[in-house]
Amino acid sequence: MDPKNVKSDLVLILDYGSQYTHLITRRIRSLSVFSLCISGTSSLATITDLNPSVVILSGGPHSVHTPDSPSFPDGFLSWARSHGVVVLGICYGLQLLVQRLGGDVRVGHKQEYGRMEICVDKPSALFPSGKVGKRQVVWMSHGDEAVTLPDGFHVIARSDQGAVAAIENPSAKFYGLQYHPEVTHTAEGMETLRHFLFDVCGVEAGWNMEDVMEEEIKVINDTVGPDEHVICALSGGVDSTVAATLVHKAIGGRLHCVFVDNGLLRYKERERVMETFEKDLHLPVVCVDAVDQFLTKLKGVTDPETKRKIIGKEFICIFDAFAQELEAKLGKKPAYLVQGTLYPDVIESCPPPGTGRTHSHTIKSHHNVGGLPKDMKLKLIEPLKLLFKDEVRQLGKILNVPEAFLKRHPFPGPGLAVRVLGDVTEGNALDILRQVDEIFIQSIKDAGLYDSIWQAFAVFLPVRSVGVQGDQRTHSHVVALRAVTSQDGMTADWYYFEHKFLDDVARKICNGVRGVNRVVQDITSKPPSTIEWE
Description:
InterPro entries: Class_I_gatase-like, GATASE, GMP_synth_C, GMP_synth_GATase, GMP_synthase, GMPS_ATP_PPase_dom, Rossmann-like_a/b/a_fold. By secondary structure, the chain is an alpha/beta fold.
């Protein structure tokens, strides 16, 4: 998808490393406005080529006083002013805006973190007259503060401690918020963003999945020649299935899907998924049994990143072999590989659209982003790489993918390899995990909770514990249960089960799965943890 072809004004976010940057993107898209996140140190040419109507400078963990603090390119503010582009600085972005325009930012006497109250001082573009004198609960996260504003700027809101909370220069179309309007802790944050985009900036909403579908089909047809063939790697998850359905709609029978049984699938996943592909989706799918190939390569491997890299490499080897078989059959070798990469995969694994992102850390490699070998023979088609999970589900609904399939919980590309902590080939860890996971998920479904949970799964821990089963001492395995709620997978809260539900599930697992005598629950949010354990 080419951002320049989207039928919506573009709100471009320059990312300076805040853990909340992705939330700005999501909140804006929820208002039917296209938003894209690129590195805060991108070149001026990169920014101007995207032709944004609004640019938001994100927060970040930096201080403008440090020599290597990230910043927008020279000439950016002059370009924005001369082209009528609205600029909003959030948190670090406000401080950066103030400093680069000649104002003064200093270390605050009292640092402000968490929920704080602010008061609107005067009527302004950001805060209409009805807001004057009223208090708002907002989410602060800053140590520095603006003390002297550049010419033309006015303070329009302050915190209870007297710190600058909001500034603006309407004639230059430059604005700043010291707090984070994008987080749910800021009670009126969405209202502020809505007012800013539609009333202050005059942005027109036009971001919808119907247009995304049409644009992606056009891009696919422009990319794939009329006689070229494409392979699609189907995992059985929502992402790859929607990607395959979209590409199939674009090029029809020239798409060849392959589902790989790598020995790391869930309980009866192969049988269930192949039946869905054939009966409900009518996709042309070949199933490749590569259990021995994957497990042999993974034997003795305990490092999670190494697991991901090995799995990514083996997938590509299989796809290359599948391409050679197709070449013998068709007389023409497929040139492209379709994958269901999503925007969160891109954000967590490698730089988002743009270049030079150096101000936030790689969280993990995904086999379809960070784990692909550089010498891969197939060229990639990733039609979903600018979409979040909920947007993919919307697209799938338009493409008539069965609703029950779209509601499936996410399953990681490396499969159970990242849910067995340690060597996946040791003992019967995979079989135990499959049985435990099946009991847990089926119990959730029986309780009518499945659709209320973003993702649920079991984890096999590399420890044993002493127990008593059948009046005998046991020294058996420990498993963990994980269930979270989320909107896009970038942040998540653990799901609160009733005690009776947990008690019933634990009894079913310990009584029904040989080799397990202890069940624990993971009750950490994201952050600080990731959703998956590895």
